[in-house]
Amino acid sequence: MTVGDLKKALQELIEAYQQMKWTLGVDRATGILEALSGLDETSAVDEEEKKLLRQMIKNNWQDVIVTLKPDQWERDAKVLPLIRFQKQLEAQKMIPVNDHHSLCFKEVIDRFNQSPGLFKAETLSALLQSTCRVIGYAEHEEMDCYPSARLKKRAESSSPGAKANLDMSITSMAALFYLLYYQTSEARVELIPFLIDYRERTTDEERRSESAMLRFLRNTPYRAVELIKQMEHRISYHILLKEKEFEAIRPLLPALRKTFLKVLSPDLWHFKANQDRGIDDVITRKVALCNAITAQFKAMAVPYYGIETLCQQIKGQEGLLLSPKDRELLDESLALFKLQQYREQRESEGLRHTFFSGELKYRAAKKQEQTLLGVPEKLGFLEWLAAHQGRLGDLQEKTKPSEQLSL
């Protein structure tokens, strides 16, 4: 790039910064423009000017990344002129491609490690890299089915080498899934794509594969646990306990293989609930949550008197719901679940026609269900009294005031 070309590019950058009234950006670019003023415009830019350019770019990026979230770093109005400027310099081999990535990566690492958690960003990144490496990197055409199709194909092979690789692959993926799902906060999860994108000394195929793996495990957890369930006989706890790749996460894993497999069961309520999180209608989502809780209740064969304990356990796991809206709806879904189980219990006992009878309480519970489903029905006086007696009354006491039965 000639001095004249650089001056023109700098002037465009200055004008863009002036329009957005970013004085510091204007001053930095103007300082370099002034340093070029006495040079021959047809001469090539020398190494000293290149150093000044890289320092200006670094300073401008530093101002951006400390004030914005990572998903805004390359979209914010303040940074778009700088990205265009960088592209011009990169095309002329004036600066390294994506020279700002090292700065961004350090910021992501710092934010991840400063967020509460039991492991560092470097640990997660290393496990994600090694998992994709052992499975094999995704081709462009398999992005929508990675890593499922590749692992299923490998499972069909009778080769001893393929079987050993499958053991390592599914074990590593299961450990990564456990770490992401049970040991990683939402705040940390939001940073992981940027750990992938901005990591230095990486390749496009690594980024592509790790991004596809992250989407598979986090966006479709129900598919991930179904795949793990299908191949659970290939999960080797010997590998987890002995191989160096898992040394840093070993203290975070369940001590026993059977416990590990149990917490990755596709029948668990939160996996089923997350499968339905794309539903927009509030009532439908509430019912989907209730159905997921009911499925676990039946799978565990919990007796009626154990319902409250189960609900408390589920409430304590609300952070496993990927949708903030579902977390807001969980209390009402639990109330709906308890009312449905109460009615089923009443039906199994028979509805006797006595004062505050099972039938009266059954009707009261049914009306409260309708209220939770967006079709409110007024309670009669006797229904209201019945609702506050016995088991239905106990349910009322353990229900939030906003969800309680009213006249």
In short:
By secondary structure, the chain is mainly alpha-helical.
Fold and architecture overview:
The chain has 407 residues and is mostly helical. The chain folds into three domains: 3-98, no CATH class; 107-264, no CATH class; 270-403, no CATH class. The chain has 21 helices and no strands. The longest helix is centred in the last third of the chain and has 26 residues, at 324-349. The termini are far apart. Mean pLDDT is 87; it is low at 380-388 and 401-407.
What's the SSE blueprint?
Elements: H1 3-19, H2 23-35, H3 47-65, H4 80-91, H5 101-114, H6 121-135, H7 148-155, H8 160-182, H9 186-189, H10 192-197, H11 204-219, H12 221-230, H13 237-242, H14 257-262, H15 269-275, H16 282-299, H17 307-315, H18 324-349, H19 358-372, H20 381-387, H21 390-397
Our count of domains comes out at: 3
The main sheet comes to: none
Helix content: 55-70%
Q: What characteristic shape results from the CA principal axes?
A: elongated
Say how many strands there are. Answer: 0
Low-confidence stretches: 380-388, 401-407
Number of helices: 21
Mean pLDDT: 87
Q: What is the gyration radius calculated from CA atoms?
A: 29 Å
Helix and strand run: HHHHHHHHHHHHHHHHHHHHH
Distance between the termini: 80 Å
Tell me what portion of residues adopts beta-strand conformation. Answer: under 5%
Structural class: mainly alpha
